[in-house]
């Protein structure tokens, strides 16, 4: 059986033209603007959108829930000071991305009240994907599937215009957010500056199953069957990672499924408090994988992420026990 992804940094020939890619992105936005559950941010709403982004930052970084529409000028200033660099207000957003209010799909009034926010860049990144940011739902509107439905809508719009899907970033210390994205089946494609996750058409659906003894990373095969690729367990506080025959049959080391399977399983392991380091030799090479790749690279970057969060005064509650030495 063959599981072909694509090279992690490759670009299909149809997307080599920057002009063509910009046109595709523009058509994606046309589709999104026509959706009943999305309303483009219009002139005069920029500051309100920024306050909703600020509420999202406060909850993610500090663990404090804020009603964005109750923020005053003075309280906004206090929150931005507490958040440091992360709380700086974005400028010139419309040059680089388009912002949308998430609304109730059945609310078709002209001035629909927002229940959340999302923004997408106006040009594709990487191998034909749009970057998503500012995904947030108001606390009163959660557990209704709004954010999940909007992410599905974004993915479907990208696919309809010949793009592969979307990418987004989040912070390791925002544990609830990280777990949410993994439950949605997003793949881990980077940990260079933060955690980069993606839903891309050339990456199949996956599942991580197992118990206290071992975890298996499996993808959906051509016949809809689960194909195991990697098995992880631990002994004496160290990770043991086994590649299956199906994994070894993947085309080459630049194949996206081969690369991102390792990184995605690594994040699942970290969230369960499992070891990420196989031995002293692998740990000595951890910085080699500080962008993406082997689990030791994630172990190293978790240390960096948590130190930066501490310096910024962010709340840090981590399930992962960092290796000593």
UniProtKB/TrEMBL annotation:
Family annotation (InterPro entries)? Acyl_CoA_acyltransferase, GNAT_dom
Query: Which GO terms label this protein's molecular function in UniProt?
Result: acyltransferase activity, transferring groups other than amino-acyl groups
CDD domains named among the record's database cross-references: NAT_SF
**Looking at the record's lineage, which domain of life comes first?**
Bacteria
Identify the residues that the record assigns to the N-acetyltransferase domain, covering every copy: 71-222
Annotated region (Disordered) at: 1-24
Q: Which PROSITE patterns match?
A: GNAT
Name under which the protein is recorded: N-acetyltransferase domain-containing protein
């Amino acid at each position: 059986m063959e599981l072909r992804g694509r090279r992690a940094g490759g670009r299909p020939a149809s997307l080599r033209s920057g002009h063509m890619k910009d046109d595709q992105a523009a058509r994606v936005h046309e589709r999104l603007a026509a959706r009943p559950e999305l309303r483009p941010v219009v002139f005069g709403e920029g500051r309100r959108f920024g306050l909703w982004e600020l509420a999202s930052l406060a909850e993610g970084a500090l663990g404090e829930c804020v009603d964005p529409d109750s923020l005053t000028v003075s309280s906004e200033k206090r929150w931005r000071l507490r958040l440091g660099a992360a709380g700086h207000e974005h400028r010139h957003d419309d040059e680089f991305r388009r912002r949308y209010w998430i609304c109730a799909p059945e609310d078709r009034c002209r001035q629909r009240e927002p229940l959340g926010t999302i923004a997408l860049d106006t040009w594709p990144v990487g191998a034909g994907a749009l970057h998503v940011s500012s995904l947030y739902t108001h606390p009163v509107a959660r557990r209704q599937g709004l954010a999940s439905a909007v992410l599905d809508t974004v993915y479907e719009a990208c696919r309809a215009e010949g793009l592969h899907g979307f990418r987004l970033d989040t912070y390791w210390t925002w544990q609830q957010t990280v777990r949410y994205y993994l439950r949605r089946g997003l793949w881990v494609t980077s940990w260079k500056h933060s955690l980069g996750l993606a839903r891309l058409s050339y990456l199949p659906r996956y599942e991580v199953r197992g118990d206290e003894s071992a975890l298996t990373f499996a993808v959906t095969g051509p016949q809809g069957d689960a194909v195991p690729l990697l098995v992880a367990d631990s002994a004496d506080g160290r990770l043991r990672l086994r590649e299956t025959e199906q994994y070894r049959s993947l085309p080459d080391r630049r194949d996206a499924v081969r690369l991102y399977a390792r990184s995605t399983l690594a994040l699942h392991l970290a969230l369960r408090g499992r070891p990420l380091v196989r031995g002293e030799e692998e740990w000595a090479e951890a910085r080699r994988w500080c962008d993406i790749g082997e689990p030791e690279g994630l172990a190293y970057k978790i240390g960096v992420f948590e130190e930066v969060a501490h310096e910024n005064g962010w709340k840090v509650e981590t399930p992962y026990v960092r290796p000593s030495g």
